[in-house]
Amino acid sequence: MRLSWGACAPLAALALACAAPAHATEGGGGIYPLGADSVAPGLLPAKPGDYWFHYSQLYTADRVNDVDGDRRPIPNLDLTIVGNAERWLHVSHATILGGALVTQVIVPYAYVDFTAGPRHTEDVQLGDVSVGAFASWHGKRLHGWIGPNIYFPTGSYDRLRAFNLGRNYGAASLQGGVSYFITPKLDVGVKGYYGINQENRATHYQSGQELAADYVAAYRVSPKLRVGINGYYYQQITDDKVAGVRPPGGARGEAFAIGPLLQVYFGRATAVIKYQQEVYTENRAQGGRLWIQTLVPF
Length: 298
Prior knowledge:
By secondary structure, the chain is mainly beta. It is built from no helices and 16 strands.
């Protein structure tokens, strides 16, 4: 089977969920990049070796929704993020739980232009680095992987700044993906995320626990081209806390996004362009994400 775009990268603080003044996780953002792993999300590289992934994303939003999904009256709201992440992935000859041992390191960074009312931030920031280890399995039609990914508070942070790519807290997550090839040309897949956040000691804000799922249905038009539909669903499952106190309503967020996907093969390399429009959100910004992703095996 030809190598497809892998799925396991929680790209740490490429977390372009948003940073507008909503109430669902601190600042309305998060450490996990929704929608990053929506291309063959259960299929990691099978051949032992090293792989380099580059992710670029343009996220724009001009609204933040309340608990009912209605627009909040925030003047001059405008958010643009040009996010990037470099991901190194190593597929080992070693095995774990009957599958290949796969490890990764991800370093995110981004240009941020954010305005909300009188507040404004425009600069380049480093995000939070993450590391992970996974067990990966490959069958004739079914592929999958599972394992932990840990986020470290290494990113740029200033509590007085309007936007911070770095979250200023660590997080632990369990992630996994499944891809099923219905036919050699048609596949479906989903990648799941469950994350637990530490408290931000600078603000005493602890974001609630989170669930997310990236999904895809794709068709191989030719040996060098795949097209499909992709997106994500996000749900916060526990309340936020500020200095140990639950805010009114619990401040839980929710989001759903969908859009087209195009994947092109260049020899051993792969390039993907995809778009994800958030059609519904609660307690979060609502916008769109344009992704360009590349995979190059060493």
